[in-house]
Amino acid sequence: MANRAGTVALPSDLVDITALLDAYYDVSPDLSDPGQRVAFGTSGHRGSSLKASFNEKHIAAITQAIVEYRAGQGIRGPLFLAKDTHALSEPATNTALEVLAANGVQVLVDARHGYTPTPSASHAILKYNAGRAEDDPGRADGIVVTPSHNPPSDGGFKYNPPHGGPADTDATGWIANRANELLEADLAGVHRVQLADALAADSTGQFDFLSSYVDDLPLVLDIEAIRNAGVRIGADPMGGASVDYWGEIGERHHLDLTVVNPTVDPQWAFMTLDWDEKIRMDCSSPFAMASLIQKVSQGAGYDIATGNDADADRHGIVTPDGGLMNPNHYLSVAIDYLYRHRTGWRPDTVVGKTLVSSSMIDRVAEGLGKKLVEVPVGFKWFVPGLLSGQGAFGGEESAGASFVKRDGGVWTTDKDGILLNLLASEIRAVTGKSPSELYGELTAKYGSPSYARIDAGATREQKAKLGKLSASDVTATELAGEPITAKLTEAPGNGAKIGGLKVTTEHAWFAARPSGTEDVYKIYAESFKGDDHLKQVQAEAKALVDSVIA
User: How would CATH label the architecture of 450-549?
Assistant: First the structure.
């Protein structure tokens, strides 16, 4: 742990906003450097203007590519344009609007001139498209300008097609390739008008994202139960896009809800530093959440306290009896609660999780009599199930999840941190117990797992080899004293490549995946035989992976 992790940021930790914004407009990417080209990860293109990886030219090119992609897909409905509170989000949104208007795309921006959480944008797209056929040219789609929980110096830009969730690799690959072609042509082919003209264009309209989302919450949550039980909620937007939403949720639904910190500051000077002494709005990190955890521990009086990252697609749950809940623990409780209390869901519903999430979820699903569907990392894999209602819940270990409405209809197809945070209050209201207490009951029933993620060094070549492994490349038959029961390079839930390796035994497992940004690979591991056994699993996992990628 870094020495200052969990302490309030110092002036020396803060990004120079003027320099950041100047670089957005003044710096041109060097396309001979792969790090300065457009590259879409699981959550869009991300980078920093100070590193020449998120600049005006990038956003103009990406937006033009999206215009051409949606035209090729026959999408001619409105495009919902949303942004979070990162400093680079405002200029990037303006650049995008200039390109969209020049191309005659109907754009809907926030009617309140505020910030829009990712789940609110997804909800708006789905609500607009309800009842439309998959080939209806009037379908809507969207762009969300956010790097999620990343540091204040970063920017992000992601595309959500008409299904409302993250675009798949076919879409993002096409968009990235076309954007890089436009960059190589020095933006020849990019149509653009001045911002004032874009704002005044007939094609630019407004949409009340907040009302659409907040007013519909009783369709997906038992708000009445929360209100009647008088659950005391402390909600920390952590300087992100949910800042106006939480106050409205409390007022419109008459909840005992306090917005813990309504401050919006592009430097995030109020934040406590994350594990590596960086400012990062990660609501699953005890270091980034230190101030809220301290408030609760010192008797703030909240039954449930919550945090969100900058675009509110992640959740963080703090309880008076348990502190900050591990995301895997909360997912397990949420699944157990929802599948026992949502009587309007389809009887054939399945439980969706990513393959690096806790196997406690496997045991919970089995106890519920529900089929488990295990998919690769990336929320996009949950979109079909959430749309149909059969995959009523989808969750991943990084504190991202969503679930369907009380009648089984789709709510969002992107991660919804606001929803999962409010669910904790519903659980408290209906059961009379905190999610931490309920997780204790699950461990008494199913065992108590030890879970951790570590990084191991690897060259670019080794990472590439890891990403292309086949199960036959692994000859080991035992892991940490137990016979290996499965060697997976494809997700058992849908047969998709996992871009790495997962090895399981009766009481433990590990998964290894290459990092997309650093010279490391990530080892996720879990054991139901204690911390010492987990360390043995981690050590043997590293040795096993190193031997096959050497």
Answer: 2-Layer Sandwich (3.30)
Q: What is the pTM of this model?
A: 0.96
pLDDT in tens, 462-486: 999 999 999 899 999 999 999 999 9
How distant, in Å, are the alpha carbons of 16, 308, 312, 447, 491 from that of 399?
30, 10, 11, 21, 20
Q: Is the dihedral of CA 12, 15, 17, 19 positive or negative?
A: positive
Cα–Cα dist 60/182, whole Å: 9
Element (H, E) at 527: strand 520-527
Which one is catalytic: 43, 53, 122, 148?
A: 148
The pLDDT of 13-28, averaged and rounded, is 98
pLDDT per residue over 500-509, tens digit each?
Answer: 999 999 999 9
Higher-confidence residue of 158 and 515: namely 158
Helix (H, G, I), strand (E, B) or coil at 294: helix
Q: What is 17-212's CATH number?
A: 3.40.120.10
pLDDT number for residue 43: 74
Q: Which residue has the tokens 């969503």?
A: 402
- A 10 A CB-CB count for 133 gives 9
Domain ranges of the chain: 17-212, 215-446, 450-549
215-446: CATH number: 3.40.120.10
Q: Given this chain, do its domains 17-212 and 450-549 carry the same CATH topology?
A: no
Average of per-residue pLDDT across 428-449: 98
Report how far residue 383's alpha carbon sits from residue 147's, in angstroms, rounded to the nearest whole number: 21
Residue 1 has pLDDT above 90, yes or no: no
Which sign, positive or negative, has the C-alpha torsion 75, 81, 84, 85? positive
CA–CA distances in Å: residue 162 to residues 56, 102, 174? 26, 22, 16
148 tagged catalytic: yes
CA atoms of 304 and 174, how far apart (whole Å): 43
Question: In which band, very low, low, confident or very high, does the pLDDT at 515 lie, cut at 50, 70 and 90?
Answer: confident
